[in-house]
Amino acid sequence: MTVAPPSPASSPLLFPLFADLRERRVLVVGGGAVARRKVAALLEAGARVTVGAPQLDLALAEWATQGRIEHRSGRFDPNWLDRMWLVIAATDHGPSNRAVATAADARRIWVNVVDDAGLSSFQVPARVERGPLQIAISSGGGAPMLARALRERLERQLDESLGALATLLTRHRQRIRARFDDIGARRRFFDRVLAGPLSGLLRRGDHEAAELEFDRALAAATPRPAGSVALVGAGPGDPGLLTLRALRLLNEADVILHDRLVSADVLALVRRDAEQIEVGKQAGNHHTTQDGIHALMLEHARAGRRVVRLKGGDPFVFGRGGEELQVLREHGIDYEVVPGITAAVACAAYAGVPLTHRDHAQSVRLLTAHCKDSHDTLEWAGLAAGRQTLAVYMGVSALADFGTRLIAHGRHPATPFALVENGSRPDQRVVTGHLANLADTARMHDVQSPALLIVGEVAGLAERLHWFGAAPLSGATAAPLAHAA
Ligand code: SAH
């Protein structure tokens, strides 16, 4: 069992923070329109602003006369930096901006040079404001226009009532804390309040009714709600294949217990402060025993948390979901199950292989054989019958024996197969061929887990119908026998 470490960033991101500038000194170098806009924003944040410039524009000059800002006249002097917390260089003179940046850096004072990310040690983000609520958007300084365009989009989408909501919740913060000592319970209360009628009342400007509704919701909430477990299918890897309900649960979870098969792109959608625990299970490498997983689910659910047990594909298709539910049921823990797109369905779609087809296959069988020993329990005669598609979940090492046995029990050696490696993911590969060459072909292309094997006439359609990623790689050298279907 491991707690996922922060992913190493190849080009590190800026670290966002919101600074409390009340009564703190900030220097703005420059006396034109750009400087004025920065000064206005700083004054709004309560900063004590000094403007250094040979001349001030009209508005700045007036603010100086009124005593709202202090004016240092003349060219930049490093002594201006004394006692400053922050500096903004907003002159239209490159060398002056550079001098400010260098001097500030030498004294470890945070500096922003307007429109020059290279010289800046901090960036001022584009902002969306709703009352005390602020959303800051940054492109890292590289594409400010993109950040601005996004801000406009958010401006249109975010309701004005959010400001009133933030104010109301701020006002009642102490009461909320007093009612819920558990952070998970508090979070759940917020989720419920946000989904309830409060926003609508605020939107209509009915503050009195909103207050009453808040009081009612607070009184009705249970301070220690019961924990629960959701068994959620994460699909094959492409996050676009998650269900809406899976996405919602990932956003609400306190704890995520996930298999190694779950893709990084899906995990990136999990709520940031949820605890992520990998209970990795991969062919031949069982990190956490099934009993260990059961114990973790029970422990977290009993502590009142919302647990998401996240599994690759569908939880009930070769996912041991049934066993996990039995344990939860025995221990009286609430649960729900959210289906996911199973590997057979996803790999077939992303490889252009229809699992059924009026000309070729009237049925599909999903089967698993994770090692050669498990082959002994399969019912081969039935599997070898024609006009059906086999979707085989298995470790790559079990492939060779599988093809041989199928042929031995009567499936034609020229029956097409498609092996789909990393189905639906950016690195998907599809390898096609004929049953007789299955093992050689897999070896030749060094097919790795996770891979799904599709056997049946329909697999032959991948050549023509593929659409996702690279074209199928085809088979080994030995010529297949003519296929008498
Ligand atoms: N519950 C999962 C299956 C778990 S068994 C589901 O419904 O998909 C694990 C096997 O699933 C792997 O050995 C492999 O055969 C298959 N598999 C899972 N994800 C896959 C993917 N993205 N591409 C190819 N095969 C995959």
Quick take:
The chain is 36% helix and 19% strand.
Describe the structure.
- By secondary structure, the chain is of the alpha/beta class.
- The protein has 4 domains: 100 residues, 3-Layer(aba) Sandwich (Rossmann fold); 60 residues; 114 residues, 3-Layer(aba) Sandwich (Cobalt-precorrin-4 Transmethylase, domain 1), CATH 3.40.1010.10; 141 residues, 2-Layer Sandwich (Methyltransferase, Cobalt-precorrin-4 Transmethylase, Domain 2).
- It has 19 helices and 20 strands.
- The protein has a 6-stranded mixed sheet, with helices on both faces.
- The longest helix has 14 residues.
- The relative contact order is 0.07.
- It binds S-adenosyl-L-homocysteine.
- S-adenosyl-L-homocysteine binds next to helix 14, strand 17 and strand 20.
Topology of helices and strands:
Elements: E1 2-3, E2 25-29, H1 33-44, E3 48-52, H2 58-66, E4 70-72, E5 86-89, H3 94-106, E6 110-113, E7 126-130, E8 133-137, H4 144-157, H5 161-171, H6 173-179, H7 183-195, H8 198-203, H9 207-220, E9 228-233, H10 244-252, E10 255-258, H11 264-267, E11 275-278, E12 281-282, E13 285-286, H12 290-302, E14 306-311, H13 321-330, E15 334-338, H14 343-351, E16 363-368, H15 372-375, H16 380-384, E17 388-394, H17 399-408, E18 416-421, E19 429-434, H18 438-444, E20 451-455, H19 462-465
Parallel strand pairs: 2-3, 2-5, 3-4, 5-6, 9-14, 9-15, 10-11, 10-14, 16-17
Antiparallel strand pairs: 1-11, 7-8, 12-13, 17-20, 18-19, 18-20
Helix pairs in contact: 17-18
The structure holds S-adenosyl-L-homocysteine.
S-adenosyl-L-homocysteine binds at residues 236-237, 261, 311-314, 317-319, 342-343, 347, 393-395, 420, 422-425, 449-452.
